Automatic annotation (TrEMBL):
It catalyses: ATP + H2O = ADP + phosphate + H(+). It comes from Merismopedia glauca CCAP 1448/3. The keyword Heme does not apply. This is Holliday junction branch migration complex subunit RuvB. Residues 37-168 form the AAA+ ATPase domain. It is found in: Cytoplasm. GO terms for cellular component: cytoplasm; Holliday junction resolvase complex. The lineage of its organism: Bacteria, Bacillati, Cyanobacteriota, Cyanophyceae, Synechococcales. Its EC number is 3.6.4.-.
Amino acid sequence: QQEESLRPQNLAEYIGQKDLKQLLEIGIQAAQSRGESLDHLLLYGPPGLGKTTIALIIAREMGVNCKITAAPALERPRDIMGLLVNMAPGDVLFIDEIHRLARMSEELLYSAMEDFRIDLTVGKGTSAKTRTIPLSKFTLVGATTKVGALTSPLRDRFGLIQRLRFYEVDELSTIVSRTAGILQTQVTSDGAEEIARRARGTPRIVNRLLKRVRDYAQVTGYPQIDSTVATEALELLQVDPMGLDWTDRLLLSTMINQFNSRPVGLEALAASTGEDAQTIEEVYEPYLLQIGYLQRTPRGRIPTPQAKQHLGLED
Ligand code: ADE
């Protein structure tokens, strides 16, 4: 409930992702003045940057409903059929982790996206017939952390493909101030910036850290969150000044100490650290790459000198 109320409700309230915002403003206005639905939209990028929020905002701005689902819930073709036949004209369908769609479900989507109909084959062999079910026009918003894992027939059916980028510290500071207002918590601008700096460019993380710092301030009796309180609380949470958490540091120190900073494969790193390979690849690595602590080479990933310096593991 509270999570929901923290989400921006419209494009004007949405902070950051300027280019995407502008494209959406234009697309929404144009579609509305023609009385059409918005083209299908594919959003990709690391988790927590606001993909679901954007789908919800589009629906609200277009005055339609948004159905939210994820590919693993659409295992059987009939799961996705059930959703599609129940869409009202113009509705938004949000499918998270769309690169994981089962093949049969994905193939149903092709004609649904392109011609707003479902083609079904009934029966087998010479007595097989095709049945066509017409659908309302809808907007598919697909989200993925791995755009390269999408098949090209699926990718080609999106009218707009956009990457969400990590947020700047000043954008995250603004989000902290906005969220603090909703949570009725006092945060100084220094306090907001300290939390923002440690949030790995990610709004979901900045809001989570703010809640933990707010708990800390409340229990220790600080009347407001300034940079001292924020630093104390975040040190207690083991979120370091670069925003790296315990797992980030484990991944880097394993690469440095155990693999002597030589290229290491994802599976080997997963096995050595006890972390899930997919989580390493989709959640941890993007930020470590972004801040230049990790490099990906054809032979594996290697930690950079900056990572060694940050961890105090220089040779
Ligand atoms: N809360 C989470 N993400 C946000 C964003 N991009 N803009 C405003 N508030 C947010």
